[in-house]
Each structure stands twice: as C-alpha cells, then as structure tokens.
Amino acid sequence: MPYFRVTTIFCALFFYFQSGISQEKPEFGAISQSESAFTSYEKDEEATAVYLYEYGDNYFEIRDDYILLITKYHAKIKILEKEGFEYANIEIPLYRSKTRKEKIVNIKALTHNGEIKHSVNTGEFFNEEVNEKWSQTKFTFPNVKVGSIIEYEFEMQSPFYFNFTGWDFQSDIPKVYSEFNAKIPGNWLYNRSLKGNLGLDVNDANVVKGCFKFPGTKDDSDCESLKYVMKDIPAFKDSEAYMLSSNNYRSKLEFELSEYKSFYGGTEKYTKSWKDVDKEFKTDKDIGSQLRKKSFFEKNVDKSLLTEGDEITRAKNIYEFLKNHFTWNEKYSIWQGNKVKKAFDEKKGNVAEINIALINLLNAADIEANMMVMATRKRGLPKKTHPVMNDFNYIVAKVDIDGESYLLDATDKYMPFGMLPFRCLNYYGRVMDFDKESYWYDIVAEKKNSIMLRAQMSIDSNEKKLEGVFDLINTGYKKVSQDEVLATIKEDSYIEKLEEEISDDFYIISHEKNLKYSNEKKLTERFNFEIENLFQGDNIYLNPFVIKFFDKNPFVASERNYPVDFGYPMKYQYVVNIKIPDGYNVKSIPENKNFSMPDNGGILKLNVSDNNSGALNLFFTFDLNSAHYNNAYYEGLKQLFNEAVKSQSQSLIVFEKI
User: Fold this and answer.
1) 450-657 classified as CATH 2.60.120.1130
2) In terms of Cα–Cα distance, which of 645, 638, 646, 643 is closest to 557?
3) Fold of 8-21+41-269
4) CB 477: neighbour CB atoms within 10 A?
5) What would the pLDDT profile of 553-563 be if each residue is shown by its tens digit?
6) DSSP string for residues in 384-410
7) pLDDT at 418
8) Which DSSP symbol is given to 562?
9) What pairing do the DSSP bridges indicate for beta strands 252-261 and 267-269?
10) pLDDT digits (tens, 9 = 90+) for 593-640
11) Residue 468 to residues 456, 518, 582, 630: CA-CA distances in angstroms?
C-alpha cells in the first residue's frame, strides 16, 4: 500500500481541518464526581469492569514530510471486581511493512484511586515484536484495586490508509459512552458498514468545504466529517456455546479503502469486482499457477489412480490417497508462499497446498474440480457485496460428478468423502471457475448426524449386579469425532476414561468395533458391561441412562442477541430393554415426556413402558432439526436442553421385592 511524502520545499505548508460536529471532550486526568461515585453498572450486574468513556478521532495530516493517518484515542475504565483487573493490561497493535511502520506517540496512562493518581512512567511502555508484520505497545496500570478508574490516551501515526478500519463499539465489558469521529478528505473513498444489532444514538455526517490543502496543488479538497455515538452498550458475551465468530455479531463500524484519487491526477482502486479478482487469481503465482500442475501429478502418481473406475470411484480414490499422503501443518495460509510440488514431495503442506494438489489430481483424472475460497467459522462470514480477500482464509475443492456437487478438504484424515471439517461449516464460499466466472456456493452440512445407544440389561438379584450389552452408533460428524478418539488413544485408556465418566460402579467387560454394521459415515461399537451397588435394602434403584448425552444445559444466559449455530443438525436416541428381575415388581418409572419447539425446530420424547412381557422398554429421542437457529428460538432451545438434562439425570426406575 503506498504512502506519500511531501517534498522539503513544502514542509512548512500544512493543511487544516475545519471542525465539524464536536463533542466536548473531557480533559485527560479529570474525573467527574459521578465517575468517582460509580460503583456498579445496573444494566449488567455481572460486569467486572465498564468503560465510562471512550473517544476516538481519525484524520489525515502531514507529519515529517509524509501524509499520515492520525488516530487519537482516549478511554476511562472503572474496575468493579477483582476479576476486572485483567483490563489494566493494555496491548495496542501496530502494523508495519518492510519500509514503513505505525507508531505510538504522546501516550499517557493514569490509575485514579480517589484523589490519588498513579502514572505509568515512560520506561514502563514496552514495544514487543509479534511477527514480521505486527508489533505492539504494552503496559500495565499500577496500583489497581476494586474501585479504581484507569485512564489512557495516545496518538497513533500510520502511513497505511487501509488501516483506517473502523471502530469497535461493543466489547466483552459494557460501555456507558463510546464516540467515534473521522474527517476524511474526498481523495480517499471508503466503503463503510455498521455491524451488529445495536443502533447509533448519534449518526452525523457533514461535508466540510476546502478542508484539506495539499502542497503544490491548486484546489483544496473537501472533507466528510463523521460522528457516531452509542450509549449504554451491553457487553458482548461470547462465552456461550454454539456460535459462529463474534466478528459477525459485535456492534462495530467497518471502513474499507475503496479508492484513492491522487492529488496529481490518476486513481487507484482498491475495491475490485469479482471479474477483476478472477483475472488476477488466474495468473497469480501462488494460486493460478499452482492450479496448473496437472502434468506434475500425472508423472508422480500411479496411473491407475487416475484411470481405473468411474468418475466417483476415481474421485474417492484420489481423495483417500491424498489424505494419507499429506500431513497438514495446521497452517491456513492461502495467499502467499504456496509451493504445491514441494509440499507433495515433502508430504506436508498448508491448507492451500494440500487442496490445490487435490484439485490438480482430480483434473488429471478428467474430473471437473474447482477451487473454492471461504472463511472458517472463527474468521467470520465473507462480505458478498464486493471482494474483500482478507475475509477468506481457507481453500477447498468443489467437485462436480454426474450432476452432483461435492466439497472436499483433504487436510483431515478422518473426514469422509463429501464432508467438510467442522471448522469449514460457515454458510458459503466463492467458487473460482476460471473458464467462466466465479460464483457463490452454499455450504450444506451432512444431514445425518447422530449418537444412538441401544442396550439390553438384566439384573442378577443373587449376584446383586446388573449385566448388559449396548451398541453405541455414531453417524456423520459424530462418527468423525469418534474415529479420531479411537485412533489417537489406546484401548485401555479409552475404556478407563469411559468408566470414569459414567460411574465408579460401572465396569466395561469387553469392547469391540462392530465393523459389520459400520461404513465411512457410521461407526458401531459394542460394549459388555456391569453395574454394581444398585441394591438398597429390599429395593433396586436404577438410572437407565448408562451414558448421558447431556451433563448440563449449554444455554445459561437469560437472553441471547445472536443466532445459535450447531454447524449441523443432530439426533440423539437412547433405546433400552430392561428385564424385570425375578422376585421383583416395578414400583416406579419416570414420567413420559413430549416436548417440541415451534416449527418442528426440536423434539424431545421420553417413554417408559411395561408391556407385561417381563421387561421395561425405554425410548428417548432428542432431535435438533436445524443447524442454525435465530435468537427468537433461544428460549425454546434453552427449555429443550433443560428437559434433556433432567430426563437423563433424574430418571429413576425402582424395583421392589415381592
């Protein structure tokens, strides 16, 4: 990204900004009576700290002969609990290139304890290298205690106009007041968007005429003066389970450099069309040229791999071959440094190298395969309005065979053909079809995912123990997870861990993988087991749920303002037949339950019956019929899981001696 230097002859000629809408900014170091008296945040009683005030100002200015993006920041945070001490540790990220870098100047920090103020001394601000592109300024506030107000401000000078990225209104602690200001000369054009479900309390934009004077040019540039404010901003609590990246939901302003108009004429565009991106990818040495290594793979694999069988057979064989050939180095890097031939020879590579090799091999076998760029769940959803290549961090293969489409990722050795790893279940990606045009393509997860347990139990009243056998059947993504467990843990350790998780009175006598009833998307295991200490006096007390699918409800918050995302639909089923022991009657059984969510979103059923055949039959099913639920379904999901936990933990069958 270019930066601009002003020649020495003009170094004394500075531009100016006429002020737009202004908010009276408090003087650094001044604490109001209300801020001192602030002891709790009534809108969030769980808050351990709260931003009392946050202010940012962004503008362009000539400094040391360069046009720089200046960011000024000022914040006050009240510490409410000891757990809030972590917010006294500050890290400010700084970007750099080979020739230029961002820097912090005029940084100040104070800890306010009533009338006493403790400063962070100059030598206590540390610069730390993170990697070749990033460093950070770090410091810790001194003498922090419950009730302290920590305050800091700084100025950042950046030669990188693309780093004017926006403002995070929402964080993991609440904010009483947050204000963002910017003054942008008309030469710089930015795309902007407001994310999240919170509205702005102030949304002002004005044009300021002739606000920017660039030395050596005739005309002054107009500026857009912006002011955005949010008040009483709730904390974003991303600790609950089952959500996509918080980047999708946190309330924030996003700016993206679209175009720069030079003061000397000419325009440089940064936001491109997908047609432009397609063209660039086709010739890019790290993408397009790596996709044209078909001849290399034809020479370096057994020819039968590319020729034997029909298309689907060849595709599956190639997929299995590459899963076994490669070891993924757990790097997502997709835009630079890809060396497919080198990775193949070394049998180790990043996501791009492995899956581009897959595409090359499929094409060498005359199977239509294209690259699909996408973002992982933790990355956030890519923008569809225009290409933002930094949104993408992953590559998979899209394969078309006999009218069916498959998405493949050869980095995961346990993943069946046609399924993507869980980290990739992020709604959609962009298929780069270089012969035609790129297009968006939906990521649809495997629909048949389940854990099923089917058991037979009998109680020996003489030996005073229960004997039984159960089959544990995992399908879809649950099968993938179980395959990895069984492949990475020794049998004895697996059995021991399972016994510990179930009960001190539970013993596994034997275990086998029942391959007769298993396939690439289904795994069946059989366990013979015993349970002791069921007898209490003349009665037998049995919780029939040997394995509990749910130990606790994952949804504990009173409300949720963002969707619930499981990644894929799920089914849990538990079926057990319990022989009534000789000399005993059934005294009590669990109550039957039937609970369902609106629109058939989820179902729970529990039924225990005595069919007069000398046995009890228990049937439990718990279905999540969708992978994604908007927050309107949150209360229903919460109740559904609550019923599931109660059903499995509180169900009790009592046999009484005749």
Assistant:
1) yes
2) 638
3) Immunoglobulin-like (2.60.40)
4) 26
5) 999 888 888 89
6) SSS--GGG--EEEEEEEETTEEEEE-T
7) 96
8) S
9) antiparallel
10) 999 999 999 999 999 998 777 899 999 999 999 999 998 999 999 999
11) 5, 22, 16, 42
